[in-house]
Amino acid sequence: MAKANLNREPMAKQDPKKRGKNFNEVALGYSAEQAKAEASRCLQDPKHPCTDGCPVEIDIPGFIKAVLDDNMPEAVEILKDKNSLPGICGRVCPQETQCEQVCSLAKKGAPIAIGRLERYVADWERTNMGALNPRAEPPRPTGKQVAVVGAGPAGLVVAADLAKLGHSVTLFEALHVAGGVLMYGIPEFRLPKKIVQAEVAYVASLGVKIELDSVVGKVVTLDELLESGYHAIFLGTGAGAPMFMDIPGENLNGVYSANEFLTRVNLMKAYQFPEYDTPVLVGRRVAVIGGGNVAMDSARCALRLGADKVYIIYRRSEVEMPARREEVENAQEEGIQFKLLTNPKRYIGNESNWVVGIECYEMGLGEPDESGRRRPIAKEGSEFILDVDMVVAALGTRPNPLIAQTTSELKTTKWGTVVADETTGKTMKDKVWAGGDIVTGAATVISAMGAARRAARDIDEYLRS
Amino acid sequence: MFRIIYRETLATKIHLFKIEAPAIARKALAGQFVVIRIDERGERIPLTIADWDGKEGSVTVVFMEVGATTFRLALLKAGDFIADFVGPLGVPSHIDKFGTVVCVAGGVGVAPITPIARALKEKGNKITSILGARNKDLLFWEDKLRSVSHQLIVTTDDGTYGRKGVVTGPLKELLESGEKVDRVIAIGPSIMMKFCAQTTQPFGVKTIVSLNPIMVDGTGMCGCCRVSVGGVTKFTCVDGPDFDGHQVDWDLLLARQRIYLDEEKRSFEQWQAQMGKRS
Lengths: 465, 279
Hints:
The complex is a heterodimer. By secondary structure, chain A is of the alpha/beta class. Chain A is built from 18 helices and 16 strands. In chain A, a hairpin with a 5-residue loop joins strand 11 (355-368) and strand 12. In chain A, helix 13 (258-267) packs across helix 14. Chain A starts with 15 loop residues before the first helix and ends with a helix. The relative contact order of chain A is 0.13. By secondary structure, chain B is α/β, with parallel strands linked by helices. Chain B has helices at 22-27, 68-74, 110-122, 142-147, 168-176, 190-200, 236-239, 250-256, 261-278; strands at residues 2-11, 14-20, 33-37, 45-53, 58-64, 81-82, 84-89, 100-106, 126-133, 151-156, 163-164, 183-187, 206-210, 226-229, 232-235, 242-244. Chain B is globular. Chain B starts with a strand and ends with a helix. Chains A and B meet through strand 5 and helix 13 of A and helix 1, strand 7, helix 8 and helix 9 of B.
């Protein structure tokens, strides 16, 4: 057997100093030569652990071989067979904990850059095949109607999968654009919005009807949808309600939830105010509370808006941070300061209700808690004050209770998540399935897509029975 | 895209739009609101629902020109479209047989108050309404509110119409008159609602207000509209907009409504520049 090539192709990124001042995409993608070079490293392992490690079961060796053979349309077909949103996944999936972690070359420290190749193929399709996307014969209509609530990653995948199987699907979205967290949460410089809309357009091209500005639970209830003729419903409403710490000063002017901050910046394009009408505060000294991807995104947005200093305040240490390693590094390269083992005690305001500082504790780590990570414990007498003029609280989110409150028989947990079977996505309510953050609490785009794939299979089986 | 079926100017800088929105018209209830976005670059703003017609499939909103978005909105005509119209949002007003209800409308507040008064009257309540505006050029819907009330008192700050003075004058008199008042609903500018709540507090009459903080999505996802009621943080868009006026932290609401004063000024200046170029 030929000696394995352990030279992983690097992917160019915008220079950190430059990119800290613009909202353009940071990662610049592979060139055709780089893509082929990386594809040539693949051992084409017949056991394909990578495919097994992929929540949507992409035939990874398959599309990689097609890239190597310079048969791009074939690569697109193989990839799109299993993944309706490859341009998105290639950018935001944590491949390092999924396919790349179990790659046959991983134990040699040089797993194939599967994510970068996926992105390459998706971007090639968008540039070269445009909106035509020549489809195989449209499937025969089954006469069954499905309502999908929420046009985020889970909803889009359920809609696409069911439409490909011949069912008539209507996607209901509360916001004025489809995409959910892909539009409002993940910033432009990580996931360009025109890519999201191109992939939404692909889903629509499969025959899915998208109803924007439709808040299910308000303009129509699930029971009314069932009564009006839908044979099945999938709930993909996500975990879009922000959590606060309930500490003094949280309602001061200048204290944002990450949801609000990111929605203003990404969805409403406040970074282009006043050409776009929605404003966002431009803090000079900004503190972002939290250690996940949302915290990294918030910090990097605040920097780009023009902050002089941006702090990440996180109560545990770096190894416990849930954010993708890559995003932590990007933030560090851009000059964001990490105040680890630090936690806010209260926000300090002035007479006009504006935040002017945070009183923080230093933290120590004790025994592991329910999450398996060492429990952060405030050190007595360690309080200090950090001068800030803006705070973004990226402490996590939980499901919006709107649907549960207006639906009979839907069982929810004490955290507000909907109870659903792990494999099939079936809820306790007849004809209603659920998947993604509404079931698991805030998680990843790809795990929502995996749950959606499984639920679509189960819904299809039910509709044909 | 949502078509403007009909538009009317009700008073100086105050306009009524009837929007084609059949799904919302079928579900709307008094006390709820919609969020609108004029176009691709527009911001999302909340507007209370002033009326609706299930048969016609229309929802009526009333707004005052106060900033860039409402100035731009005011230029639209019947037949024009707005990009987004979302609703019905918020918890509907609690309608029950309370007895005697005093409905106090300040300025544009008469628009959301009217359907609430109508629903309460239909439920068998005795409705005494107080309608106040700064001057007679800002008064509208006097007849409409009268038609859903047993008694109507009109005030203007400057005395150019009706009684001279602010709404809290007649409100206090009603409470002092000895006639039993079971409930008060007060809708208008925050400062007006605050003073109404302060007026009714010594009399122990339950006073419901409809709060109007800044909003973005209107569906509970961002927390922009958070207010403090009874010391607990609530989201106006999903927990309200109606709240117990005696429990609201008014100073916090007023402070948070000032967050974007600088940006609003900038938008207004840009608007003026754009309008200047056109003339």
